[in-house]
Amino acid sequence: EDMNVDIVVVGSGGAGLSAAIEAKEAGKSVVILEQMPIIGGNTNRATGGLNAAETTIQADNGIKDSKKVFYEDTLKGGKGKNDPALLQTLVDNAPDAIYWLNDMGAGIARVSLSGGATNPRIHTPADGSPIGPVVVETLSKKLKELKVDIMLQTKAVKLITENGAVTGVEAVDKNNNSFKVNAKAVIMATGGFGANSEMVVKYRPELKGFSTTNHSGATGTGIAMAEEAGADLMQIGEIQIHPTTDPKSGYLFTEGLRGDGAILINKEAKRFTNELLTRDVVSQNILKQRDKVAYLITNQAIADDNASLAGYIKDGYAKKGDDIASLAKELGLDATTLEATMKTYNQFIKDGKDTEFERVHLTHSLEQGPFYAIEVTPGVHHTMGGLKIDTKTHVLNKEGKVLSGLYAAGEVVGGVHGGNRIGGNAVADIIVFGRIAGQTAAAELK
Ligand code: ADP
Known about the structure:
This protein is α+β, with helices and mostly antiparallel strands. The chain is built from 14 helices and 18 strands. Strands 1, 2, 6, 7, 8, 9, 17 and 18 form an 8-stranded mixed beta sheet that branches.
């Protein structure tokens, strides 16, 4: 049966859920459509944290950082391709995103270092557990309180337009019944297209055959629907591969693990890169190694401090050795070489200087066993390109004009991350722009 609401949100990841909360709190009627049987999309898989600079949490931990350096790090990581206004909006609003989540009980309290960041600024739950599920749970609990309906297994298939303005969506429910949601505004929060290998290969032929870290609903339908309604696309070929995924399943091992002390070695039992370079560079460096794989080496001390690593070990992803020689044996590597590699690295820790690969933040020595090794290879992770928006999340058409009635936020959007996304910026992105989309759409309702 057809529905009438003020605002329809398509997609229930972090961006869609945030938008819906803001719109509802502004007094509008809201419904969320979600094609999958569960909410949360790729946000469920966000393993790292949320980047923000000049936060009270950083101050409490004695960390010096600035919005200016955050902006510059992100622009550098994005190869200078980030849309400056969108990036500034991200940086300016990231601290508030954390406080907003914490006001709802998210408990974000810890700051770590992550790839591509000059200073520790990736904010995570206190025990270092993955942020995605915490964000989804926090937001969905709030939506329950606000009595916002989330229609599962309900897929938006087409935008309805009248005189060039978007006035709702056509959708299909779980029983395959078509219906219309008539609305004054549509917020597109459908995520990226990392799981649509055809679309990935269309824009980046060399990524044929790559596995993906994405949930199966990351198919880019929102991009197609908006394009059909006249939306312009931005940097659609910018696709990120994540350096450390399971070669068999594409399961992602958090980047924070390297920040927390893990090193990478190849099948020659040698280090080959500064582990804390940006994702694209570390990925390229792994692809140059034998069999295009590497091993993340950690020890028990790191696992005791990092809930994610403890989980990977429990789930059987890691091989274990009580000392380096037995770890080498487990991996089929040369023990003498691995021992020499570890000795050199541990000396760098003592000296505070990595003269081989110039890794900084040499914090955790890897002297004490037991040791763990996780085999990794790069997989398709994030699609940086997407719909072209302005800083108020209005979707723009090919003439650069606002497509009336249509707003977009999250991975469906292009330009925020430029040519490469820094770890910790996706969660900042979806909360910051999701909130703006909900606020703007509500404020502009006629
Ligand atoms: P973001 O991080 O930008 O919020 P996510 O991937 O976390 O993106 O969430 C996007 C959600 O949108 C996913 O749960 C996905 O299943 C859903 N989705 C994608 N396309 C559609 C569609 N056409 N109709 C309904 N839901 C959709």
